[in-house]
Description:
Layout: H1 4-16, E1 20-28, H2 38-52, H3 56-67, E2 71-78, H4 81-85, H5 90-107, E3 111-118, H6 125-132, H7 134-140, E4 144-152, E5 156-158, H8 159-175, E6 187-191, E7 212-219, H9 221-231, H10 236-265, E8 269-273, H11 286-292, H12 303-319, H13 339-346, H14 352-358, E9 366-372, H15 377-394, E10 398-405, E11 413-415, E12 422-424, H16 434-438, E13 442-443
Parallel strand pairs: 1-2, 2-3, 3-4, 4-6, 7-8, 9-10
Antiparallel strand pairs: 1-7, 4-5, 5-13, 6-10, 11-12
Amino acid sequence: xxxxxxxxxxxxxxxxxxxxxxxxxxxxxxxxxxxxxxxxxxxxxxxxxxxxxxxxxxxxxxxxxxxxxxxxxxxxxxxxxxxxxxxxxxxxxxxxxxxxxxxxxxxxxxxxxxxxxxxxxxxxxxxxxxxxxxxxxxxxxxxxxxxxxxxxxxxxxxxxxxxxxxxxxxxxxxxxxxxxxxxxxxxxxxxxxxxxxxxxxxxxxxxxxxxxxxxxxxxxxxxxxxxxxxxxxxxxxxxxxxxxxxxxxxxxxxxxxxxxxxxxxxxxxxxxxxxxxxxxxxxxxxxxxxxxxxxxxxxxxxxxxxxxxxxxxxxxxxxxxxxxxxxxxxxxxxxxxxxxxxxxxxxxxxxxxxxxxxxxxxxxxxxxxxxxxxxxxxxxxxxxxxxxxxxxxxxxxxxxxxxxxxxxxxxxxxxxxxxxxxxxxxxxxxxxxxxxxxxxxxxxxxxxxxxx
Length: 452
């Protein structure tokens, strides 16, 4: 039961510290939509998504009104499309993308995820067909998000898949060149991808999930930063406790909304993803949390240690507030979506190499990073391979969402608008890994993959 103090504290978090529910995401299985006829397949996909999620948006609005808690996004994730499409032609996969767009528009949701493939150990012809049209799918739709899992700790790293993704990213950048190459902002390359992640662009509905499910992502960087500021110059053990207690309160709000949404939609509750997801808004930055902890600037020495402590404390606090924590859960560090990260890049404190080091201890990986449009496919493949190897070696999820902004060079700025924010174009070393990437094949799984 909440007492008066708890209620007033939560109201303060919402009004003054940017506490919100970042997303209610309904996961929907499309496994029963399989058909050898493309048109029939697309119709079944459209019908199921619009039937299952018919009341998702209005339910979100009703919960917002009832509790006064902002719910920023209402989203849908579906079974990885490659598992449903099978060996249909590339044109058929493109038709599915347009079907997902139509369904998302009909529902009034913000994004739909699951235009995805899981190719960490190899690729079927159908998966190759889907990957081949990802750039066109992202250029011709606005709400469809795509992800490809190219590695796992158990299987190793599929370098052939990484080569395909390097090409896909460059083509997506070119095809959406008139809109700041925004197609790449809807495409994520993963290692150890979670199957219950409610956040875009990497959300999809895993094969071990029920027919439909409600997953909720909470966010409150401003709440954590304010709590740290109030704590003053306490030692790090005390500071960790402050963060844990704050994460507990944030997650408890998410649990309340998730339970209510699941009940109203007559859909099983899945997980709470307690990630600290920033926005470009003032006071909603993970970088500013790190600076409040005592760093002169995010990206300076000590940043990785501070981020590791933050991530761990957030998870420890969150798991006490919900029995079902999943997804990514931790601190996100997307450059364009975090005002503090943007400032750190602009002052020269935060580089691509430092971001890579930070991803070893945080939630995801190299996220929403704008790079010069003339960066080669091979260099992009090298960036992906480096980041993915961190996930494989550390048995954690890592991901890459880079935007080679067409026509832009280092020092320019690219503006994506809304929650996607804006980003300075970051410097990329020109040295090519072309011979390494061209070898292809699989990088074997690390020895600790043999745990059983």
